Amino acid sequence: MLVTIPNDYRPIEDEDFMNTQQMEYFRQKLLRWQRELLREAGETLSSLSAGGISEADMTDRASVETDRALELRTRDRARKLISKIDQAVERIENGSYGYCEETGEPIGLRRLEARPIATLTIEAQERHERMERVHRDD
Predict the structure, then answer these.
(1) Which structural domain, as residue segments, surrounds residue 38?
(2) Is residue 115 part of a domain?
(3) Number of neighbours of residue 91 by Cβ within 10 angstroms
(4) Residue 133 to residues 119, 125, 136: CA-CA distances in angstroms?
(5) Are residues 129 and 66 in the same domain?
(6) Cα–Cα–Cα angle for 5, 103, 137, rounded to 5 degrees
(7) How far is residue 14's CA from residue 31's CA, in Å, rounded to a whole number?
(8) pTM of this prediction exceeds 0.70
(9) What are phi and psi of 99, to 5 degrees?
(10) pLDDT of 94-104, one tens digit each?
(11) Within this chain, do residues 138 and 77 fall inside the same structural domain, yes or no?
(12) Nearest to 65 by CA among 48, 50, 78
């Protein structure tokens, strides 16, 4: 279902949570973010395929190789982020977007504005991180 929303629309707490306008707002936000990540990935590919490392000096060569490795790690993180964006768009389509995977409670507009791929409320996320720390220390 396509919903037209004004360009200056921002979700507010007074509205019904995850009404059609809010869903469309977050869908558009996620898709813009995804397009930007894909554009940056394309730029990285073209710069990496532009040629080999031609620096004769060993220090310069090492610096270029380090820069390339960092760029590839950044692109790998972007690839994982694109996957999470795809999952968020899928949740919008099936109507579960904006609700905590763990508790079923609304995640909250402020959290979704800051992290539109969030799947947990702040409280559930904090519990999850505490459990990870406990198990990591074992």
Answers:
(1) 18-48+55-97
(2) yes
(3) 19
(4) 19, 12, 5
(5) no
(6) 120
(7) 25
(8) yes
(9) -115, 140
(10) 999 999 999 99
(11) no
(12) 48
